């Protein structure tokens, strides 16, 4: 009955809003940060995806039809060893966007950092600090350059990963003093986020390789009598123009894209991994040795992959309510 | 085999660089004059690009540019033609339209042109020419600056 219309027009298969190309780097460089006013703090953190489990909690949204009742939900566990702030970076505003005004490297850095970058042999902290102080009036944005400490986890990775995280502050001088107090030191997840807050998860999705249009775009499989192929697009365009349009769902790279998942609620922040790790450990990950984070729902990427957790850019500020988690499943995930 | 000696480069006269202030200058008249300088071999820097003007009401100029911006490759818009939305790039693209772009002479001339938003620090001490041939004061009708136009395209100052 509706087939006549289906033949004339159809909804487009998959979104045209994203470029389906492989990510250039493993750690994202966010284009936007949370709008923040108040006491200085870092607006993001880095963690390693460990795996998923489920938990039971009491619904605390008053307008939900399940309000004050127990709900089961899937949660993602993110292991968050302390990050180390080894550099402060100030940006100045120019006609062509933000540009680096000054850098301030910590006088003492961790041994593992040498695996990732070359550090200056002779370094005068006082001189650098004076340079930073001189440029402080031009600086409009402060960012902390941090590195992770994957050797503290059980995943076998030694080389730290580096990212820039904005220091949120209402006054640059306050933010600078806060940054100086942290320089060269470790920062815990508790210093940045609290349970009940929302975060954005930025990361590289699981790679699927080179895929056809059925898997890549969700094109319908044709009937078995189709000539040539049945896992292809029925028509890739008209006689003229004699070229293929950019909108046609075609084969190509699928997965390993940089993606952002918005507004993930933090269910729990804990320090004892034994309480949440399933019996026998997370499959293809193992046990959680450090502080961890339970986030409601899923996040992009595979296990053992680093994700950036950022203050929400698309959420109006709300009063933070810590969810009452009653039970976390530790049932074995192996068969 | 002996190397060919390039005597041309040694005999060429090095022409001075010209720094032009585009503040209150009519875009088309400025560009055609700049194109002439470039083809003669001068290196030209255009400063204060966002302050150059086009004669006419803002909405009518905007309408013309919006029509122009619709021109793109039908089968894949990412292949261009690309429409600059930043004042310095827009001015540079306007001059490009007045050069023989498909000949190497024109391309080389184009590469001798640099455009800037505002006046960068390195030009503060050098001589800056105020072009009389493109003075917008002689206009009696309304005029629109490139900066105003580019803000409509999404440029953030």
Q: What percent strand of chain A?
A: 25-35%
SS content category of chain A: mainly beta
Largest sheet of chain A: 6 strands, antiparallel
How far the N terminus sits from the C terminus of chain A, by CA atoms, comes to 46 Å
Calculate the mean pLDDT score of chain A and round it.
Answer: 93
Oligomer: heterodimer
What is the CATH superfamily of chain B? Ribosomal protein L13
Unreliable stretches of chain B, pLDDT < 50, 5 or more residues? none
> How much strand of chain B?
5-15%
The helix fraction of chain B, in percent, is: 25-40%
**What is the domain tally of chain B?**
1
Rg measurement of chain B, Å = 18 Å
Q: In angstroms, what separates the terminal alpha carbons of chain B?
A: 57 Å
CATH structural architecture of chain B? Alpha-Beta Complex
| Morphology call of chain A | globular
Structure summary, number of beta strands of chain A: 15
- CATH topology-level fold name of chain B: Ribosomal Protein L13p, Chain: A
What does this protein look like?
- The complex is a heterodimer of chains A (335) and B (157).
- By secondary structure, chain A is mostly beta strands.
- Helices cover 10% and strands 33% of the residues of chain A.
- Chain A has four helices and 15 strands.
- Chain A has helices at 3-8, 125-135, 172-182, 213-217, and strands at residues 41-42, 44-58, 70-79, 83-94, 97-105, 139-147, 162-168, 186-187, 198-204, 207-211, 252-255, 258-270, 292-296, 306-310, 325-328.
- In chain A, strands 1, 4, 5, 6, 7 and 8 form a six-stranded antiparallel beta sheet that branches. A six-stranded antiparallel beta barrel of chain A has the order 2-3-13-12-9-14.
- In chain A, a hairpin with a 2-residue loop joins strand 4 and strand 5.
- The longest helix of chain A has 11 residues, at 125-135.
- The radius of gyration of chain A is 24 Å and the shape is globular.
- With 157 residues, chain B is an alpha/beta fold.
- Chain B has a single domain, classed as Ribosomal Protein L13p, Chain: A (Alpha-Beta Complex), CATH 3.90.1180.10.
- Chain B has helices at 7-11, 27-40, 58-69, 87-96, 104-111, 146-153, and strands at 17-21, 43-47, 53-55, 113-115, 143-145.
- A three-stranded parallel beta sheet of chain B has the order 1-2-4. In chain B, strands 3-5 form a two-stranded antiparallel ribbon.
- In chain B, helix 2 (27-40) packs across helix 4.
- Chain B starts with 6 loop residues before the first helix and ends with a helix.
- Classes of the chains: A mainly beta (335), B alpha/beta (157).
- Chains A and B meet through loops of A and loops of B.
């Amino acid at each position: 009955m509706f087939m006549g219309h289906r033949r004339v027009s159809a909804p487009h298969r998959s979104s045209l809003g994203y470029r389906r190309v492989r990510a250039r780097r493993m750690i994202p460089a966010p284009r936007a940060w949370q709008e923040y006013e108040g006491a200085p703090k870092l607006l993001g953190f880095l963690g390693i995806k460990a795996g998923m489990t489920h938990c039971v909690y009491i619904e605390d949204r008053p307008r939900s039809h399940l309000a004050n009742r127990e709900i089961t939900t899937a949660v993602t566990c993110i292991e968050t060893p302390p990050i180390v702030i080894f550099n402060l970076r100030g940006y100045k505003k120019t006609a062509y966007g933000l540009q680096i005004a000054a850098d301030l490297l910590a006088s003492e850095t961790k041994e593992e950092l040498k695996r990732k970058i070359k550090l200056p042999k002779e370094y005068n902290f006082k001189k650098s600090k004076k340079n930073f102080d001189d440029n402080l009036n031009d600086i409009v944005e402060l960012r902390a350059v941090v590195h992770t400490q994957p050797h503290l986890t059980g995943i076998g990775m030694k080389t730290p990963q580096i990212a820039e995280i904005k220091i949120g502050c209402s006054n640059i001088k306050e933010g600078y003093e806060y940054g100086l107090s942290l320089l060269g030191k470790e920062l815990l997840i508790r210093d940045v986020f609290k349970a009940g807050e929302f975060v954005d998860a930025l990361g590289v999705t699981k790679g699927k390789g080179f895929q056809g249009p059925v898997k890549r775009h969700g094109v319908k499989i044709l009937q078995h009598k189709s000539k040539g192929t049945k896992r292809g697009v029925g028509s890739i365009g008209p006689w003229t123009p004699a070229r293929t349009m950019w909108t046609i769902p075609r084969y190509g790279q699928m997965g390993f894209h940089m993606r952002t998942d918005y507004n993930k609620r933090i269910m729990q922040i804990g320090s004892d991994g034994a309480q949440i790790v399933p019996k026998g450990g997370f499959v293809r990950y193992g046990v959680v040795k450090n502080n961890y984070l339970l986030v409601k729902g899923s996040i992009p990427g595979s296990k053992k992959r680093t994700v950036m957790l950022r203050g929400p850019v698309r959420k109006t500020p709300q009063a933070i309510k810590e969810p009452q988690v009653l039970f976390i499943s530790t049932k074995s995930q192996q068969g | 085999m002996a190397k060919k000696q390039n005597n041309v480069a040694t005999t060429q006269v090095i022409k001075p660089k010209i720094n032009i202030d585009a503040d209150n200058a009519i875009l088309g008249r400025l560009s055609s004059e700049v194109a002439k300088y470039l083809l003669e071999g001068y290196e030209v820097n255009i400063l204060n690009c966002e302050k150059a003007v086009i004669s006419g009401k803002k909405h009518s100029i905007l309408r013309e540019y919006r029509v122009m911006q619709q021109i793109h490759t039908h089968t894949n818009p990412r292949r261009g033609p690309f429409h600059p939305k930043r004042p310095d790039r827009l001015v540079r693209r306007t001059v490009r339209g007045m050069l023989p772009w498909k000949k190497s002479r024109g391309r080389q001339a184009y590469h001798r042109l640099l455009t800037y938003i505002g006046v960068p620090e390195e030009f503060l001490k050098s001589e800056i020419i105020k072009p009389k041939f493109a003075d917008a004061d002689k206009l009696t009708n309304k005029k629109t600056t490139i900066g105003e136009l580019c803000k409509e395209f999404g440029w953030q100052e």
